Amino acid sequence: MPDVRLASPQGKWILFTTILGSSMAMLDSTVVNVALPRIGRDLGANLAALQWTVNAYMVTLAGLILLGGSLGDRYGRRKIFLLGVVWFAAASLLCGMAPNPGILIAARALQGIGGALLTPGSLALIQASFHPDDRSRAVGLWSGFGGIGAAVGPFLGGWLVAGPGWRWVFLLNVPLALLCVPVAVRHVPESSAGKHAGRFDVLGATLGALALALLTYALIEARSGSLGVTLTAVAGVAAAVAFVHVERHRPDPMLPPDIFASRQFTAVNLVTLCVYAAFGGFFFLTALQLQVVAGYSPLAAGTALLPTTALMLLFSARSGALADRTGPRLPLTVGPLLCAAAMLLMLRVGPDADYLTDVLPALLVMGAGMVTLVAPLTATVLASVDTARAGLASGINNAAARAAGLVAVAALPLLAGMGPEAYRSPTAFDAAFDRAMPILAGTLLLGSAVAFALVRRPAPGCRRPECRTHGNVTSPPLEGDRRGG
What we know:
Blueprint: H1 9-43, H2 47-75, H3 77-96, H4 101-129, H5 132-162, H6 167-171, H7 173-187, H8 202-220, H9 227-249, H10 263-293, H11 298-304, H12 306-326, H13 329-345, H14 355-383, H15 390-415, H16 426-454
Helix pairs in contact: 1-2, 1-4, 1-5, 1-7, 1-10, 2-3, 2-4, 2-8, 2-15, 3-4, 3-7, 4-5, 5-11, 5-12, 8-9, 8-15, 10-14, 10-15, 10-16, 12-14, 13-14, 13-16, 14-15
């Protein structure tokens, strides 16, 4: 049984290491959007390349995050965590040195692999190291400080872009890794479940990531209408079908199909797909709108986005407690409605937009909506399956959210009629942004309708979240399986 106490020096070092490692990936999920206009200008990238700068990372992270957790269980959680940190730092160095968009996109895909190793690994180390009496508090601190990292991301990204340059958005990860690795080697104990780890589905993970990559490529390049795009879309569908077939017939699949036998679990994941598709599209386009159209500097644009994550950090725990009393149906119905209203309020953000009267009201309503729905969503995911599968359910929900975000970033410019050079023209981008926001609002309305129609109060005595404080806007909290080992 793990026996490290949180108050001990070793406990503090473990917590520091896991927070530092996971914050690298958390920062990257929010910081890059602010840097996109400068990246495009310096590297001569078109809109499709900027979409891939975001999505290459999300494809490998979403496709491999379930596999990353099982690798740690099998081969050693500290070992895989350290591999993820080193891998992530090396890929970040390559991003920071990229001479052209192609190298940057490839490096971002490699970054996603590192993120898939270190993100679940950091939580697994806490679960496996701390005494049961301290584990919930340790997870809460890990989640809370990770949320602070996500909140600081846009501000830090804007400061770096406006100061030393966008390359430091990525290069900053290198010294963080150099600090994290020796501390982990010295203070973090190794643990594993050995050959009894369970899920270890490389074929399923590969097919899932391949399907996401092919379909994302087809959506981003669809405006060309070429035969190659059509063939890529067909190949993506074929990979998705093969993924489902493999998962249905493997004895120990990464994504067991029978978990979706729970109507509640299926419903909450449908809500997740809708709301996180909207969030992904919103934060991608808003960071561009504030700079390209409203004329904000990178620092001002990054700072402008702080209220949303600040509200989540301050009130997510209270929202979860309220949902425990009211049940999840109401917050999962009302939360998306508030976020949809925020999308429509963003239509006021145009040339020379005033922050206090045009931008801030929309972001405050957006934050209120996210506060209302994120904590109840996570709690309902955990409550909708057997306690033994809660960690798996959380991982699936987290991966679904990331996949929804990357599909939105791929599809939304197409649906809104953004041309390859739209972000270079304030007039063209503003017109497309005004078409995109109602699409996102409609996606949120669909999520609200699904929640109202299908989500019900869970049975008493079910699993409750340990991550009560949360600030990440790209995915719901990741919960562990509490096995230790």
